[in-house]
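We modelled the chain as a single entity of 105 amino acids. Its sequence is:
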Amino acid sequence: MAISLDILGAHRTLAELQQTIRQTEALPFQLLSLAVGVVGGAPASLATFVQTSAGGLLAPITLEEIASNLDKNQQEVELNKPGRHVVCYGSLYVGGQQRNVVAFR
């Protein structure tokens, strides 16, 4: 099982990040996690993918920002809205600002 770490950059919009993840999932990869990090001394958004035979067959990923001022219970309510399957929850740089983001199908 191959793992791929994609550097997404720190100044993309949420829509641009979502599109990049969807393009990678159209190949034989599936999103595992989202994180922030530092690459070459600069902040970066990172996405980890696992190689899968389901590439291109999965429902598309949707990214949604979760307000950072919510307590744990409120975050869980936001994450567990009906009709969606949470893939992961983490931080990404969106427009240069660190944000809490949920990825779901």
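As a brief sanity check on the tokenised model: The longest helix spans residues 14-25. The mean pLDDT is 92.
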